[in-house]
Amino acid sequence: MSLLAVGSVAFDDLETPSGRRENVLGGSATYFSLSASHFTPVAIVAVVGEDFGPEQMKVFEGKPIDLQGLDRAKGKSFRWKGAYGQDLNTATTLDTQLNVFADFHPNLPEATRRCPFLFLGNIAPGLQLNVVNQMAQRPRWIALDTMNFWIEGDREALFEVLKAIDILLVNEAEARAISGERNLVKACRAIQTLGPRIVVVKRGEYGAVLAAPEGLFMAPAYPLEDVCDPTGAGDTFAGGFLGHLASTGSLSLEDLKEALLRGTVMASFTVEAFGTERLAAVTQAQIQERLAAFKAMIRPSGI
Amino acid sequence: MSLLAVGSVAFDDLETPSGRRENVLGGSATYFSLSASHFTPVAIVAVVGEDFGPEQMKVFEGKPIDLQGLDRAKGKSFRWKGAYGQDLNTATTLDTQLNVFADFHPNLPEATRRCPFLFLGNIAPGLQLNVVNQMAQRPRWIALDTMNFWIEGDREALFEVLKAIDILLVNEAEARAISGERNLVKACRAIQTLGPRIVVVKRGEYGAVLAAPEGLFMAPAYPLEDVCDPTGAGDTFAGGFLGHLASTGSLSLEDLKEALLRGTVMASFTVEAFGTERLAAVTQAQIQERLAAFKAMIRPSGI
Fold it and tell me: Which residues of A touch B185 (CB under 8 A)?
């Protein structure tokens, strides 16, 4: 495997203007790995409960996703219940049951400790740092996702782990909360002084902004006529983005651009159906076709 | 002249996180013509009061802006007082005094009635239609701006004028209100069945989306580190967009893309200072430089 991802595997109850679904397989590591696996082999480190069975395993089957690090604990898996109104940009959390995730202490299988690329999904900053320290050698790059809960509640530990990483993926509110800057360009520049030299700000239906040492890159989201369920869009984006970077081994601006467009296109598939339904079924040909269509829609004319 | 613009010339009192300014020259026709004049000769049809003097005239001097159609009426000019908080996307209107604008009945000077390109700024749909009927011949294209006040309050008249136009410029909320569609792509397609074959949706700091018969094009806004005053950004965008289209005479997708990028860049200058301060002073070299930098930030790699 080339890309190691630490995160959550969960069951979600979802309610959107398109309908309802219960007990849908979700979690950041699920969306991330399904997306990244189109570009590079992935290994997951996460924890599930006794309710995770053959039906859930099937979703990962036949894909280059290594589940050695998927720990099975006594009890129930992490469960999240959320609802979206007409504004699909924001979810209302109706219920969160951490269950086995409450005691999650990532323990990396020996084979994964030499992965050249590491993605630290949204867990406690202390655990993220612990994962970094378990690596047998410093990965070629480390990417990290976080959320306001940690930015506000565990700021010191988060800033400690930020020093150790190369790529930060956050949304606009998180970028502002970390940097204290309201302006997005200033926020990115401020974050770049804290550790990560590459900052990606996800803006939901408005696309993403990338700040790298070589310059800025911006792209809108892929325009869909029907958005069914936005759950997992951010993790799917991260999977496509980092999956491409792991496959090339490069962090050049050109590769970062390509990575951002792939992340965007992968996310557009996820939101077309509930949970991982569409993402798990999408083909390489469909990805390439949408990627070409997307580039045509954002390419400025002339030179 | 090649591009005729009907709209407002006003005095604004502005309050933003960057400061306050009073009696600043504003209005849709002001921002529009200053912006468009970098690309094509413009003629304005608007009304001002006795408070509009040599100081205001100076802003237009030395630019290819024909003011023959600037009617001087007894009384005061249109006045608007607005404030922006930390979220620069939305203005709070503190006061509106229509003054001479309340009785504005555009009367096109003879010389302007054969303009090949017409922009109908945001005024009552009935007046917009009246302007169309004053033209000696059907312009090669007609573009229109409107607002929720007319979409809700004068829907029938607005839909009548929509039938007569080629290009509609609106923001997201307006696109939804006209079409009844929440999804942006669906909203554009619905509007295209009402008359305008080209729809441009302005999304403020998130850029713009263009729907044309040949396809979609999307671009983010130009990323600024300091936004001083967003007033006039939409009208400046329209001026750059339509100014470029008038200069080429083409509505090909390639020209529409170029036009959208020019509109975006012009708007980025306007918001850097209060009122028309920056827009009125910007040079062709500065425009070209920023346009090139912007294209580099949005151009996908590869082919």
Answer: 223-225
Q: Are the C-beta atoms of B84 and B54 separated by less than 8 Å?
A: no
Q: Chain-centre distance of CA A150, in angstroms?
A: 16
Q: Is residue B303 part of a domain?
A: no
Q: Give the count of beta carbons closer than 10 Å to the beta carbon of residue B85.
A: 12
Rounded Cα–Cα distance for residues A16 and A37 (Å): 27
Length of chain B: 303
Q: Are A224 and A268 in contact (CB under 8 A)?
A: yes
For A224, which residue in chain B has the nearest alpha carbon? B185
With an 8 Å Cβ cutoff, the interface of chain A facing chain B consists of 86, 182-186, 203, 206-207, 209, 215-220, 223-227, 254-255, 257-258, 261, 295-302
B192-243: pLDDT as tens digits? 999 999 999 999 999 999 999 999 999 999 999 999 999 999 999 999 999 9
Best residue in A89, A184, A203, A206 for a mutation probing chain B (most B CBs within 10 Å): A206
Task: Kindly state the average pLDDT of the residues B62-66.
Answer: 96
Q: Which amino acid is at B7?
A: G
Copy the structure tokens of residue A37. 């696996």
Phi, psi dihedral angles at A196 (to 5 degrees): -65, 125
Give CA–CA dist B177/B212, Å, rounded. 20
pLDDT digits (tens, 9 = 90+) for B129-146: 999 999 999 999 999 999
Q: Answer whether residue A142 is part of any domain.
A: yes
Residue whose pair of structure tokens reads 């006040």 in the numeric block: B149
Chain B residues with CB-CB distance to A271 below 8 A: none
HSE toward the beta carbon, residue A218, CA cutoff 13 A:
24
Is 0.90 topped by the overall pTM?
Answer: yes
CATH number of the domain within which B182 lies: 3.40.1190.20
Domain presence at residue A303: no
The residue segments making up the domain with residue A112 are 3-298
Residue A104 in domain: yes
Q: Which residues of A224-246 are buried (b: 16+ CB within 10 A; e: fewer)?
A: beebbbbbbbbbbbbbbbbbbbb
∠ at Cα B65 (B165, B207), nearest 5°?
A: 55
ipTM of the complex: 0.91
Strands B91-97 and B78-84: antiparallel
How many folded domains does chain A comprise?
A: 1
Q: Are B115 and B139 in contact (CB under 8 A)?
A: yes
As to burial, measured by CB atoms within 10 angstroms (0-12 exposed, 13-18 middle, 19+ buried), residue B51 is middle
